[in-house]
Structure formats: structure tokens, C-alpha cells
Specification:
The protein is α/β, with parallel strands linked by helices and 309 residues long. The chain is built from 9 helices and 11 strands. The protein folds into 2 domains: 203 residues, Spore Coat Polysaccharide Biosynthesis Protein SpsA, Chain A, CATH 3.90.550; 93 residues, no CATH class.
Length: 309
């Protein structure tokens, strides 16, 4: 008997991304589970779609589950962003507890797209919780990021050890594994302590490709750990369009749109940014961004070499 497959998405209102992910994988799925929190990871109130997702995604009742979690408020002194994230992710187990222990669970964030061909090739052989490595796109489906996020430890990496621009750093995204392995631990533990991590590319992480209808500076500011409390929207958008990290840590590489995501590019033309600015212009923006970063951080130097552009 074929093992069933459930896709669980931790949602923050990213309707277009989630619709695209479900459309990409639906013919391989037995269940789609959307998990939302009534508060953001910062503890601010947030509206949820709940059961309205079933119509937005054009699913049948037997294909769909909705989980809505209550997260601690921002005035709760003992609650952190990480704890709220953990609560929301671990609620995924409630939506698959009626499935068989050998059935597969794919647990991802809304911007972590699994390649359906990879899933076809590995669905029968997966026996333990597995972290999925993904190629990071940045700002557009035709831009590839050489790095995937902003932790300070990356700035201590010598320039010569940075990944080549042709591939970019593989992003450790969601997880996949037998549902029975969830017992007593939860999805967040899977992500933090996977039994194995894939060696090959399993999909794409769409960094800011289809941002929610929010101030982009807020999203990028959060990624930068709030070092720049006065993040300027116009500046952030300019960096994103140029393929430059807003703190100058790296520049994106021009690349072709992944074949499996061409439908998303047709559906959302703004997800394709076109040619990068000239090398000299990008070099200037990166230098400006590095100066901005150093203004708001305690670092006095960076291992990022603008010549890598």
C-alpha cells in the first residue's frame, strides 16, 4: 500500500506563496495542513484565515486540516520569538494524528518549496526525520543568494570559504519524515535535531520573492535581528531590487527561473526581477550597505569582500 503524504505549512498570511506550493505538490498529497497563530512571533495580535483556506486553495474537505494556535502576548515576560515559533510548529502534530505512523509528513514554512521530482524519488525510502537543503532565491525567482540568512557567525567566515555564486549556500529548510517519529518530540525538534540532512538539493527557499503586504523594511529588519531600528523602506527596497543584502553581506547572482516554478513566475510577474544592475553600481550599493550595517552593529570589520560581486 502506498504511504500517504501530508504537507504541513506554518503560515503567516502568505496566501500567494501557499497557493503556489499547494498547486506544485497537490497531485502527490493526501492532506494539506495549514497551521496559524493568533499572534505573530513577536506576540502582536494577528488575524487568521482558519477554515477559509479550504476555499482559497480549492481543496476538498477530506484533503484539508486547519490548526489555529494561541500564542503568548508580547507583554508576557517569559515568552520569546523562538518559543512562539516552537508552539506553532509543534501544533502540526494535531493535524496528522489520525494518519498511519509510516505515512510521510512534510513540514515547511510558506517560502520553502519542495521539488516534486525529488519527492517522487525519495518518498518510499525515507525512514527517519530528514532536514531538507534548498537553494535560496533572493527577491526574485531569477536571483540566487550566496547566503541564506544573517547570523553574525557567518561574518567570521573567511572570504575564501564562502560558497561559489553558481550554487549559493544551501538553505536548511523544512523537514520530512514518518509521522510516527513525531511522538513525544514535535516538528520543531525535527528541525533542530534531524537524524539526517539531505546531501542534494530538495527544492527552493524563496527569500522575499513574494513578500506579504507589509513594509519590506520590517521583514528585512527582522532578518537582521533589529540592528537597524530606523530601517528605511526606500533603502530596503532599493537593495532588494539590486540583489544586495541590505547590510552589504552579499550580492545575489543572476540565474534562470527553476523550471518547476515557471508557473509561479507567470502567475506573479513581479517575482521575476530581470537583469542585475551594473557591477560598479552594485559595488557602490554594497559599500553603502556595509557602512549602514557598521553604523548599527558592534562590529568594526566584516569578512565580506565586495570584490566577490
Amino acid at each position: 500500500m502506498r504511504r500517504k503524504i501530508a504537507l504541513a505549512i506554518t503560515a503567516d498570511g502568505e496566501v500567494d506563496l501557499i497557493r503556489g506550493m499547494v498547486d506544485l505538490l497537490l497531485h502527490k498529497l493526501d492532506r494539506v495542513l495549514i497551521v496559524e497563530g493568533r499572534r505573530t512571533f513577536r506576540g502582536k495580535p494577528r488575524e487568521v484565515l482558519g477554515k477559509d483556506w479550504i476555499d482559497l486553495l480549492a481543496l476538498k474537505p477530506e484533503q484539508f486540516r486547519s490548526i489555529v494556535t494561541d500564542l503568548p502576548a508580547d507583554n508576557n515576560p517569559g515568552a520569546t520569538m523562538r518559543q512562539r515559533e516552537m508552539i506553532q510548529r509543534n501544533a502540526i502534530g494535531l493535524g496528522v494524528r489520525d494518519m498511519q505512523s509510516d505515512d510521510l509528513l512534510i513540514a515547511v514554512d510558506a517560502d520553502e518549496f519542495v521539488d516534486p521530482d525529488w519527492l517522487d524519488s525519495h518518498a518510499d525510502s525515507l525512514t527517519v526525520p530528514t532536514r531538507l537543503l534548498m537553494l535560496p532565491c533572493y527577491g526574485g525567482l531569477d536571483r540566487r543568494a550566496p547566503d541564506w540568512h544573517c547570523c553574525l557567525k557567518h561574518l567570521t567566515t573567511p572570504v575564501g570559504h564562502w560558497p561559489p555564486h553558481e550554487t549559493g549556500w544551501l538553505f536548511p529548510g523544512g523537514v520530512i519524515g514518518p509521522i510516527g517519529e513525531l511522538a513525544n518530540i514535535g516538528v520543531q525538534y525535527w528541525r533542530s535535531h534531524p537524524v539526517v540532512t539531505t546531501l542534494e538539493v530538495t527544492g527552493w527557499h524563496l527569500l522575499h520573492v513574494l513578500p506579504p503586504e507589509k513594509d519590506p523594511s520590517w521583514k528585512l529588519q527582522r532578518q537582521a535581528h533589529l540592528w537597524d531600528s530606523g530601517a528605511n523602506l526606500q533603502y530596503m527596497v532599493r537593495c532588494l531590487a539590486a540583489g544586495i543584502h541590505p547590510y552589504g553581506w552579499w550580492g545575489a547572482t543572476q540565474t534562470s527561473i527553476p523550471t518547476k516554478l515557471e508557473f509561479l513566475a507567470r502567475r506573479h510577474p513581479s517575482s521575476v526581477l530581470g537583469d542585475l544592475p551594473s557591477l560598479s553600481k552594485r559595488h557602490h550599493i554594497m559599500q553603502e550597505a556595509l557602512e549602514c550595517f557598521h553604523t548599527y552593529s558592534h562590529l568594526t570589520h566584516s569578512s565580506i569582500n565586495p570584490e566577490q560581486l
